[in-house]
Structure formats: C-alpha cells, structure tokens
Design a protein that fits this description.
The strands form two sheets. This protein has a two-stranded antiparallel ribbon. A two-stranded antiparallel sheet has the order 3-4. 32% of the residues lie in helices and 11% in strands. The protein has three helices and four strands, in the order αββαβαβ.
Length: 95
Amino acid sequence: MEIAGEVREKLMRDIPEIDGVGPIRQRAVGPHPIPMFEAWFSFRYLNKVIEWMKQNNQGLAIMFHPLSGNDLEDHKTHSWWIEKELPLRLEVFEQ
C-alpha cells in the first residue's frame, strides 16, 4: 500500500489535468481483487496518463477502463492493463 500511496501522490503532482483521485481503498472493492485507488481524467489526456503510468507504476498492476455506464462491459471488454493483468471479480455485476 505504501507504493500505491507514492504513485498516487506523484500522479497528482505530475499531471494537473487529472480531474480527481480517490482515496486508497484498503480492501478489495467491487470487481477489483486487491486494494486500489481511482483516478479520473478526460479522454484527451489518456495518452499522457498511460505514458506516465508506464514510467511510474513501480511494478503495480494498473487497469484503465472507460465510464460508459455499463460497468460489466467497461471492466470485461473495454479495459486494458499496464504491468500485469489481474483476474477481476466480474460476478459482482450479476447481483
């Protein structure tokens, strides 16, 4: 969690175009199998954020997905990963 906190703080400092960064979730949330944090940004900054994450992820698994309103498809079909892909708990969307 310490590494995630460092990445989160650096992200907020280095990319002022980020619309918001959520707190570090101390446990698995929704389909995400491990603790995590979220960052929101406009699509026009996607390449900038991806390149930044490639250089600054410190070995963390980083998932990107849109916010289309269809959570299952956003996580299952429209997501992509940096570093390593983790299995998601997609069954949470069936409840």
